[in-house]
Amino acid sequence: MAAKTRSPRPSYKCTECGWTAVKWVGRCGECQAWGTVVEAGVTPARTAPAAVVERPAQPIGEVDATRAEARSTGVGEFDRVLGGGLVPGAVVLVAGEPGIGKSTLLLDVAARAARESRSVLYVSGEESAAQVRMRAERIEAIARTLYLAAETDLATVLGQIGQVEPDLVVIDSVQTITSAEVDGAPGNVSQVREVAASIIQHAKARGIAVLLVGHVTKDGSIAGPRVLEHLVDVVVQFEGERHSRLRLVRAVKNRFGPTDEVGCFDLSEVGIVGLPDPSGLFLTRRDQPVSGTGVTVTLEGRRPLVAEVQALVAPGGGGSARRTTSGLESSRAAMVLAVLESRVGIRLRDHDCYLSTVGGVRIAEPASDLAMALAVVSASSGRPLPAGCIAVGEVGLAGDVRAVGGVPRRLAEAARIGFTRAIIPRGSLGNETLPAGMRVIEVDDLASAVDVAQPSRTG
């Protein structure tokens, strides 16, 4: 009796990293991505035959470098983040939460490019052409060579690019475009990979700059396959609070420039406007100093921003004392409060403490620890800090004040705004020259900083 032939067992493969398994699982065991493991047939290894070379390799010194020169977008803050502008053939992925201003900014960029005698194609997969036209009228983004198409099919989008032959293409968004050659709903891993790869191939072959709008997940990461971020040349992240008009744009990846630049924008009813000098947004103008306020200078990329930290210390109502923060990291705030009580003797265990920033700015840099601590001391004693004083430094658990980077740049920005005194960690200034009119006080620990800021204090 002939033995039964056993059918081959199906294998499963992760579409993100290539990890294989003998049975289906919901989460990849290698890259930990969800929903990326699919059944894959076992195929023999293939070797691609050599093809006829149409463009032979040339010495690197003979390559025309002018084809990779950046062209300004007309928005200075956006150019700062991109490294000078858009490079022909470059593909930029602009990601951010819904309603944060991505479409508004890119429509403004498209209109400014069109006004410079460039042909621009704006493809909307989320809104109708009439809806985009209404927004363009509201932000004054109407231009003669700005073409608009509402499409969601990849083949049609590529056909539009071939017909218009634009210098710049804006696609809003990559997750809404689908390819008929790939199964699955719009936005899934396979669809996003195929759409992005096709658009990038056309952009490189024709020297077209492309701006792709990307969605983000609930945790803030870019939706779709991780390979999307590897395929594009630049990844730009939009940040900002919904209740604030301030928007920060930073480059997460940039093949043509630095990734430590930050662009600042003001989002209003008439559009989004760059803010070349945003420091004044994060300060409260007063005639007299007020207790519970401290000023620091934080570095967003290379850009120093003067920001105000406010504190309120109130008697607790029994039970555990409340610790509430807005715009500051709650863990760092809790640590600073504990150091104040343990190392300086400021009694806070039976008091509620509220800490906040001004203007909706978010501060995560440890250099703001000292200003936060001094604001709490001022709120506890009811006495304001000296007028025109800033504080910069990281507070350690031992009560020491540690040095931070970029102190000369921070002091120069504070002096430009009008501050005349600074409390900084000892040794962080080096041999740098002080800005004119700036008095610097160096401290070793938090207790010394408190004595300088509030002499003859009461604990």
From TrEMBL:
**Highest taxon listed in the record's lineage:** Bacteria
What does the entry list as the binding residues for ATP?
96-103
Question: Which family is this sequence assigned to?
Answer: Belongs to the RecA family. RadA subfamily.
Region Lon-protease-like: what ranges?
A: 352-459
Q: Which organism is it from?
A: Barrientosiimonas humi
CDD domains under this entry? Answer: RadA_SMS_N (cd01121)
Q: Which UniProt keywords apply?
A: ATP-binding, DNA damage, DNA repair, DNA-binding, Hydrolase, Metal-binding, Nucleotide-binding, Stress response, Zinc, Zinc-finger
**UniProt motif (RadA KNRFG motif) ranges:** 253-257
SMART domains from the UniProt entry: AAA (SM00382)
PROSITE patterns from the UniProt entry: RECA_2
Supply one GO BP term. Answer: recombinational repair
Q: Which gene encodes it?
A: radA
Q: Which GO terms describe its cellular component?
A: cytosol
Entry protein name: DNA repair protein RadA
Give the Gene Ontology MF terms in alphabetical order.
Answer: ATP binding; ATP-dependent DNA damage sensor activity; damaged DNA binding; hydrolase activity; zinc ion binding
